[in-house]
From TrEMBL:
Enzyme category, top tier: transferase
Record-level GO BP terms: Mo-molybdopterin cofactor biosynthetic process
InterPro entries: MoaB/Mog-like_dom_sf, MoaB/Mog_dom, MoCF_biosynth_CS, MoeA-like, MoeA_C_domain_IV, MoeA_C_domain_IV_sf, MoeA_linker/N, MoeA_linker/N_sf
Compositional bias per record (Low complexity), positions renumbered to this chain: 369-381
Region (Disordered): 358-381
Pathway: Cofactor biosynthesis; molybdopterin biosynthesis
Xref: NCBIfam families: Glp_gephyrin, molyb_syn
EC id: 2.10.1.1, 2.7.7.75
Name of the featured protein: Molybdopterin biosynthesis protein CNX1
GO CC entries: cytosol
Organism of derivation: Edaphochlamys debaryana
């Protein structure tokens, strides 16, 4: 049996980033850029006002002035501001020639019109040269590299691309992923009532959703019966559809109907078939060299059938591979330090990936054992963040309860996998452990089944 870091290394060694493709701006979200993006012009392209007020010559100082014109965002009088005159200006509008400062409207007073209905204003506060003006290129200079190859396009990046007029982009292609469930007992989720011995297929929908969330195009291969012929037919279907990755679930353990490993051994190279991890021990990884398709390689992940094992293996091993194919430079899950809110019994044989919901705060979330009896050391940890006027805050790991690998509710609302080392005994509430992020940290509710974890789970 190999360790999970070894398994991750093997998978990534066999994973190559896909080629670049062109997408429009609307299709860029979540993709990795395969090119640098430069600014074709400066922003602002003209000296722009930061405030609604009056464009002035700073040296003129306080006093009463004629308003000789106006500059509104999107429009501009060509009238220059000369000594002893001002122009009305709105936020974002071009500063007229001659003016070198803007006085906000709050520091002025409208006066009755002068001769010939000439508008007039009192400037109540002298300006410094450059005041409330964004010089040309102060946000982005023409020719600047605003985004670079390898950047992940998020919401802000979409805005940046739009700003510089980059409406067609080169991004890494995302993998095409096929998902196959296996097992004679596994029936479609729509099946009601269940027949004798049947269970609904949770893994296929879950893994298709996981692939979609990773930005992949996916192919639903349905459920394969536990026969060599049917399984082989499904594998051939995946190959024929040109997928980059096949994810199967079930049929990788030690039973006489666990046919995935022998099938992959016949068709390609199995790189590992057992990993020291809980859950997920029978996790299998193979590559198939497809001579009939120009020698291209297909990755196959044989995930264990237990739904939680599939869920955990997907995040730890499949997701980094999908990300690397899609151009991610650092495809692994990110870690944070988190403090246990309950005792955890350790597993002496396998390191465990304990599902939890992370909660940020200065003290343990209510209804956790740690909240009931916080140890004296709990607030003085290296994991705690503090700042002026800010109580020490940290991530609190609230277990999702019973961690048996058949209980998918143990993944409900989970946003992290705690990396619990392999050892005997109990890890005490209040200890700090590393947590791998599997979802964003925004507002996950603590599941009702979460909270206390009693030794034995
Ligand atoms: N003699 C041994 N038996 C087992 C071992 C072992 O080391 N020696 N390992 C155990 C571990 S750990 C796991 S995990 C499971 C994995 O088994 P398989 O990958 O072969 O999966 P199945 O036997 O097909 O199914 C296991 C379990 O999951 C249910 N299942 C399967 N597919 C789905 C699905 N699509 N949706 C929902 N549930 C599914 C299935 O009915 C079984 O209950 O092996 C242990 N055995
Ligand atoms: O490794 Mo299995 O996934 O514990 O049930």
């Amino acid at each position: 049996m190999i360790s999970i870091p070894e398994a991750q290394d093997i998978v990534l060694e066999h994973t190559r980033p896909l080629g670049a493709v062109s997408v429009g701006l609307a299709g860029a979200l979540g993709r990795v850029l395969a090119e640098e993006v430069h600014a074709p012009d400066s922003l602002p392209p003209f000296p722009a006002s930061i405030k609604d007020g009056y464009a002035v010559i700073a040296g003129d100082g306080e006093g009463e002035y004629p308003v000789i014109g106006e500059s509104r965002a999107g429009h501009m009088d060509e009238l220059p501001v000369t000594l002893g005159t001002v122009a009305y200006i709105t936020t974002g509008a071009p500063v007229p020639p001659g003016a070198d400062a803007v006085i906000q409207v709050e520091d002025t007073q409208a006066l009755p019109p002068g001769e010939g209905e000439q508008k007039r204003v009192r400037i109540c506060k002298a300006a410094k040269p450059g005041q409330d003006i964004r010089p040309v290129g102060s946000d982005i200079m023409q020719g600047d590299t605003v985004l670079t190859k390898g950047d992940l396009v998020g919401v802000a990046e979409v805005g940046i691309l739009a700003t510089v007029g980059a409406t067609q982009l080169r991004v890494f292609a995302t993998p095409k992923v096929a998902v196959l469930s296996t097992g004679d007992e596994v029936v479609d989720p729509s099946t009601r009532p269940l027949g004798p011995g049947q269970i609904r297929d949770a893994n296929r929908s879950m893994l298709l959703a996981a692939a979609a969330k990773a930005g992949c195009e996916s192919v639903d291969l349905g459920v394969a019966r536990d026969t060599e012929g049917h399984l082989e037919g499904c594998l051939q279907a995946a190959i024929a559809q040109g997928v980059d990755v096949l994810i199967t679930s079930g049929g990788v353990s030690m039973g006489d109907r666990d046919l995935i490993k022998p099938l992959l051994q016949r068709q390609g190279t199995v790189h590992f078939g057992r990993v020291r991890m809980k859950p997920g021990k029978p996790l299998t990884f193979a590559t198939l060299d497809l001579q009939e398709q120009g020698g291209r390689q297909m990755l196959v992940f044989g995930l264990p059938g237990n739904p939680v094992s599939s869920f955990v293996c997907f995040h730890l091993v499949v997701l980094p591979a999908l990300r690397k194919m899609a151009g991610w430079a650092v495809p692994g899950l990110r870690r944070v330090a988190a403090r246990l809110t309950a005792d955890l019994r350790l597993d002496p044989e396998r390191p465990e990936y304990h599902r939890c919901t992370l909660q940020w705060g200065p003290e343990p979330p209510p209804n956790t054992p740690l909240a009931a009896s916080p140890p004296a050391s709990a607030s003085a940890s290296s994991a705690a963040a503090s700042g002026p006027g800010l109580a020490a805050c940290e991530w609190w790991a609230v277990s999702t309860g019973n961690q048996i690998s058949s209980r998918l509710l143990s993944a409900r609302s989970a946003n992290a996998l705690l990396e619990i080392p392999c050892a005997s005994g109990v890890l005490k509430a209040g200890e700090v452990v590393s947590a791998l992020l599997i979802d964003d940290l925004g507002g996950m509710p603590v599941p009702p089944g979460g909270g206390p974890v009693t030794p034995g789970f």
